[in-house]
Design brief:
The complex is a heterodimer of chains A (297) and B (169). With 297 residues, chain A is of the alpha+beta class. Chain A has four helices and twelve strands; from the N terminus they run αααββββββββββββα. Chain B is mostly helical and 169 residues long. Chain B has helices at 2-24, 34-65, 72-90, 97-122, 128-159. The relative contact order of chain B is 0.14. The chains are: A alpha+beta (297), B mainly alpha (169). At the A-B interface, α1, α2, β1 and β2 of A face α1, α2, α3, α4 and α5 of B.
């Protein structure tokens, strides 16, 4: 009788130990175990896409009912804004033409050489411990691990895992994500910090490791620095809403409101280029920043 | 064979619904873990062996589709199954009150396992006290009340051998 119980306990312990080893092994940078692990999401993706579209329609229907008055007000406001935007658009196109002309004159190349691939968000990790989404584009579309993902508002995250037809994106708000960033206003080389998910304030980011004398103010726009090679330089991350000293009082830190609305992501763009294909210009600029930053510290 | 296929497709359907709901609704809306409620209901009805198997397969599918590592949710869901199956020996299976309270406790057990392993092995940082108050507690209550609807449904389905058509008279 005792032997049977002991055997059961041993079996249970064995299963737990095996699973712990598997978690440890696969928990690294997108380690995949088997072909089945790739095959399963590949088969499921089209079904997930169907569910996602149906779900979005249902959600929009209910949102429409509950927010009818708000939609009417928004409609009037948007019409007004559209008129303004038309004017702005004309002015912008004139400025753009002028910009191109001047660039040509100065012999500058276009800074971003990335091709954008639009993708639809088909699922989101239902567990709140992890901030990841699934998109309907995968390795068959040219997606690779570590590619940056953006929306028209700014940086979303990066690809951590791909199958033939889908990819998983780790969002900036995930506590395991960190991006090298700087203040757009000053672009001071010594003011490169790390932006990471804010565990204390859900939905916000925090910028840490900023030198004590860093010139950072509330309202400043934070952009990616290009250091590390995953994210190209200049992608908008968010705006500073609070600044202060870190827990030891030696460095500054800031709370960042993300530029992207992570509450509702429907469509994103993947920057189609592996990190090692980033232009030399960007890296040399980033290296220069790093050197000067180190020098100041 | 039909039994396992039915269970597998049910798990898949639940996960697809969960993933879709999380994607189309704003992040601040708290969604129940449907799979957890199903795993505990099945375990309550069918005992440890089948419960652990369903928990393992369900958790594994969740890991493959959404998880940051294989085995994380598999362990969490197996713990839920073990808890529910163990409780079913002590509590009357014909009434929904037992599974309801198990759902309450299982939610905390499941999330504690996922959190503990994630912070230890995957390096996540989350404010636990805040999450318990704003997400875990409402979620546990959500599961508590959801079990009122799901458990009797599965109980009736089991009585007419819906999952085991070969046993139908």
């Amino acid at each position: 009788m005792l032997g049977k119980t002991a055997l059961r306990l041993l079996k249970g312990a064995l299963v737990v130990v095996i699973l712990l080893i598997v978690i440890n092994y696969t928990g690294g940078e997108g380690m995949r175990l088997t072909l089945g692990e790739d095959l399963f999401p590949t088969v499921v993706t089209p079904v997930q896409g169907f569910f996602s579209r149906a779900g979005a329609q249902v959600a929009n229907f209910f949102t429409g009912i509950f927010e009818f008055r708000q939609i009417q007000e928004e409609n009037a406001m948007l019409r007004e804004e559209l008129a303004k935007m038309r004017d702005l658009s004309y002015q912008l196109s004139e400025l753009q033409k002028e910009n191109y002309r001047l660039r040509e004159l100065l012999g500058f190349e276009e800074r971003t050489k990335y091709k954008l691939l639009p993708a639809e968000v088909i699922a989101r990790n239902p567990s709140y411990w992890f901030e990841t989404i699934t998109i309907n584009k995968g390795s068959a579309d040219g997606l690779e691990k570590n590619m940056a993902v953006v929306t028209h508002e700014g940086l979303v995250g990066s690809v951590i895992d791909t199958t033939a037809t889908s990819a998983r994106i780790q969002l900036l708000t995930d506590s395991r994500k960190a991006v090298s960033a700087l203040v757009q206003r000053s672009r001071e080389p010594g003011e490169v910090g790390i932006v990471e998910g804010n565990p204390e304030l859900r939905g916000f980011l925090r910028m840490v490791n900023l030198p004590a004398e860093a010139n950072i103010q509330i309202g400043d726009t934070i952009i990616s620095s290009g250091l590390g090679g995953v994210f190209p330089k200049g992608l908008v991350i968010g705006q500073v809403v609070e600044t202060g000293k870190d827990q030891y009082g030696l460095l500054q830190q800031a709370i960042i409101k993300p530029a992207v609305n992570f509450n509702r992501l429907e469509e994103v763009f993947v920057l189609l280029a592996a990190p090692n294909q980033t232009s030399d210009e960007e890296f040399s600029e980033a290296d220069h920043l790093e050197e000067e930053g180190d020098g100041e510290e | 064979m039909i039994f396992y296929l039915l269970i597998f497709f049910l798990i898949l359907l639940i996960l697809l619904i969960q993933g879709t709901l999380a994607a189309v609704f704003p992040r601040y809306i708290i969604f129940p873990d449907l799979l957890l409620v199903f795993v505990l209901s099945f375990s309550f009805l069918w005992g440890k062996k089948k419960g652990l198997f369903i928990g393992f397969i369900g958790g594994l599918a969740q890991d493959v589709l959404f998880g940051p590592a294989i085995g994380l949710f598999a362990l969490g869901k197996m713990a839920v199954a073990y808890l529910a199956a163990s409780a079913s020996h002590e509590i009357f299976r014909d009434q929904v009150v037992g599974p309801m309270f198990v759902a309450l406790i299982a939610t905390f057990a499941h999330e504690a396992i996922v959190y503990f392993l994630s912070s230890l092995m995957l390096g996540i940082q989350v404010p636990v006290a805040n999450i318990i108050k704003t997400i875990l507690l409402p979620k546990a209550v959500f599961h508590f009340f959801m079990t009122i609807f799901i458990y009797p449904l599965l109980y009736k389905a089991d009585r007419v051998n819906f999952f085991r058509p070969s046993l139908k008279r």
